[in-house]
Amino acid sequence: MIENTPLVRKLGAFVALSDPELSVLASLHKRRRTFVAGRDLVHQGQTEQAAYILASGWACSYKLLEDGQRQIVDFQIPGDFLGLRSVLLKVSDHSIEPVTDIEVTEILVTDLLDAFAQTPRLATAVLWAASRDEAMVVEHLVGIGRRDAAERMAHFLLELGARLSLVGLGSRAGYACPLTQYFWPMPLD
């Protein structure tokens, strides 16, 4: 049932989705795929790919540097889009790796654009969600550049809590977090 998914909760924080909009959103959920932890589903520089909606599990986005090092730039939780910007720009500027085994809905760009043409309010909600996610990445940049280790850790954990609460996977009492030191996105000094 689409009405109670993390994506609908996330988009519903901005727009009260109508039955026709929920129907169009449900029609996007026809191609389900699973990926195992540790195997990239999107590679930096990849072209002609699909976008995904994360249904369950966690993933991370990272940039691969020329010397082989990587910098994690964000974590994705259920309800988040994966590779949306890369699909629209036709090339991925980052890689995406599942942190846990994940289930996603694969969305072709043509299906996404058709859905937006049918339901402009749905397109507005997705734009809002993408803008909110981008604002969080900007905060990560500030964290790396200007916050000390304790401030970075506190900000990151509070942000995760707020994001998970928004999609019904956390509360003021806490949330489950599968991250290990291997996935920590910023230096801890």
Q: What's the gist of this structure?
A:
With 189 residues, the chain is an alpha+beta fold. The chain has 6 helices and 9 strands; from the N terminus they run H-H-E-E-E-E-E-H-E-E-H-H-H-E-E.
Word description of this protein:
The protein is of the alpha+beta class. The protein has one domain (2-171): Jelly Rolls (Sandwich), CATH 2.60.120. The protein is built from six helices and nine strands. The chain has helices at 6-12, 19-27, 84-89, 109-118, 120-146, 149-166; strands spanning 32-35, 51-56, 59-64, 70-76, 81-82, 95-98, 102-107, 170-171, 174-175. The strands form three sheets. Strands 1-7-2-5 form a four-stranded antiparallel beta sheet. It has a three-stranded antiparallel beta sheet with strand order 4-3-6. Strands 8-9 form a two-stranded antiparallel sheet. A hairpin with a 5-residue loop joins strand 3 (59-64) and strand 4 (70-76). The radius of gyration is 16 Å and the shape is globular. The N and C termini lie far apart (45 Å). The mean pLDDT is 86.
Largest sheet: 4 strands, antiparallel
CATH superfamily: Jelly Rolls
How many β-strands, per DSSP? Answer: 9
Strand content: 15-25%
SSE ordering:
HHEEEEEHEEHHHEE
- For the record, the CATH architecture stands as Sandwich
Q: Which topology does CATH recognise? A: Jelly Rolls
**Could you give the distance between the termini?**
45 Å
Poorly predicted runs of 5 or more residues: none
CATH class bucket: Mainly Beta
**Arrangement of strands in the largest sheet:** 1-7-2-5
Integer count of domains: 1
Question: What is the approximate shape?
Answer: globular
The overall pLDDT, averaged over residues, is: 86
Rg over CA atoms? 16 Å
